[in-house]
Structure formats: C-alpha cells, structure tokens
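Progress report, Aim 2. The chain analyzed during this reporting quarter is listed below.
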Amino acid sequence: MLERLQKILAEAGLGSRRECEKIIAAGRVTVDGKPITTLGTTADADKSEICCDGTLIQKQRKIYFLLNKPKGCLCTNRDELERLKAIDIIKNVTQRIYTIGRLDKESEGLIILTNDGDLANKLSHPKYEVNKTYFVEVDGYLTDAAIKALASGVWLSFGKTRPVRIQNVRRGRQRSRFEMVLKEGKNREIRRMLVECSYKVRILRRIKIGNLYDPALKIGKYRKLADHEVERLYALAEKADTKGALHSPSLLCDTRKR
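Predicted structure tokens for the chain:
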C-alpha cells in the first residue's frame, strides 16, 4: 500500500512527521537506492527498500494499547514543561505511538494508544460516528430542562454541539451523576456544555469507546488490545461509515433513479 514517506519514517520511530520531513528534505532518505528530497513522495514499505542514512527501515507492526488515563496526564507527544504524558506510561515500546483523540488534563478514563493512523482516523473523525461514553458527576441537581438542552445540542463558541444521549441518571440535591454518550469530542466540549447549563464538573471519566469497555482496568494501568477487539473497532467504524453513506443526499438520489 502506498503511503507518504514521512508517515512510514514516523511509524518506524524516526521522529514526528515534521521531523521526518526535515530528514527527507536533507537528502538522508533513499527509496530503492534513489535519493528522495521531495515532500509528499509515496512508497510501499512492503515492496520498496527504504533507507535512512544507509540503514534499512523496517516496517513497524501495528500495536494497540488501552490506557485508563489518570488526571494530570496529557494526551500529547510533546510537552515543553515535561509533564506526565500518556505515552510515558506505556513501557518498553520502540515504535512511535500516539493517542487516538484526547482527554483533557483534568479528565480520566479510557484512551487508545497506537501507531495505526487508519484506526486513529476512524475512531476520532466525526463522520464515522463512533460513540464515546463518559461518566459525569456535577454539583447540584440535574434538571429535566438541562437534560433536554444537552440532548438537543448546546450553543458554544464554535457553534451548536451535536445532540448527546443522557442515560443512567442519579440525581441529588448536592451532586448528580449520569452518563453522556457523544459521537464527537471537541476540545473540553463536555465541560463547556455543562458550564453553559450552569453546572460545575467534579468528575469526568471516559468509560467506553464504541463497544470497548473494561471496568477492571484501574486508573493509571494499561493493557494490549486483543486482535478481536481491534477487529470490532474497525467493524464498528466501517458500519457507521456505510450507514452515513446510505443517508447521504447523492446516494439517496441515485437510489431513486434506480
């Protein structure tokens, strides 16, 4: 399969894609013996001999980890303040891995780390509509009006949020607990939605990604995903993509013509 050369180098652990672009531009990379300096060049890592500084680049196997991220941990590959990052928790990995999507610093819960860019796109892009489920605890009594507002979408600075599903609600005068199911996850979206509805978030924890759920995985711990779990995630995203395509105006138009 043809892929951009900088992507192949990055997945082989030579650095970020931007760093790999600099390596290519410096003339340090060859494909089948031919020096490559043009960014955007594609190659097939399974069929071509790709070298950097004369050393053969081995295509890296895909790896997948499920981490129960603790509070205070960042979902980024670089932090100038050298704070704890999710990738720092995963030990003995030579490949360059990254988180699929993000959880903000004060949130905790399930997040996948991998070097599989295709799965990362399918699980994080809104068009695939892969549900993420969060446990939320807020101050005060969660009113029916607030539930209705969240379920229909809330106006924020970037526009109106997509509707969310509110379930398993337990309400009290001092605290309310419930679950929110989203098909997208813009920066601090849940917190911003709840602030807009006049609620302060005490706990925000992602408990499910699509059909991936592991209540036994403790905060700060991680494990490898089983092959069948990865296959189910791919199948879920592809099913959602097919469903979206069937409801697109152009396809509906073509269906009527038939």
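Confidence is low (pLDDT under 50) at residues 246-258. The first helix runs from residue 5 to 11. These observations will guide the mutagenesis work planned for the next reporting period.
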